[in-house]
């Protein structure tokens, strides 16, 4: 039986690769951080799939794994797919700006 950590790492790697391909530049689709729905505020989940690349099953699995991880050690992880990260210079800059806007992580912990 594979551990939750191993399964999560494998799923996260696959998702990361998928997200990398999903955020390739598409002309004229600049996103404002404020236009990306925060799943924690909407329905208490962890995944926003604006690029529509995740199956319902994958999204459900991600939400379950992240919820279990938060219960185990307090980690907060958001999975976001977008068709474009413009006007940010890099996908990392886009993600950092978005997660700061959403306040991902607990203020009193380094998580």
Q: Give the class-level CATH name.
A: Alpha Beta
Average of the residue pLDDT scores: 80
Instruction: Give start-end ranges of low-pLDDT stretches.
Output: 23-27
Instruction: Determine the number of helices (DSSP H or I, runs of at least 4 residues).
Output: 4
Radius of gyration: 14 Å
Pick out its properties.
Diaminopimelate Epimerase, Chain A, domain 1, mainly alpha, two-stranded parallel sheet, 111 residues, 4 helices, globular, single chain
Walk me through what this model shows.
A two-stranded parallel ribbon has the order 1-2. 48% of the residues lie in helices and 5% in strands. It has a single domain (4-102), classed as Roll (Diaminopimelate Epimerase, Chain A, domain 1), CATH 3.10.310. With 111 residues, it is mainly α. The chain has four helices and two strands. It has helices at residues 4-22, 39-42, 56-73, 91-102; strands at 47-49, 79-81. The chain is globular.
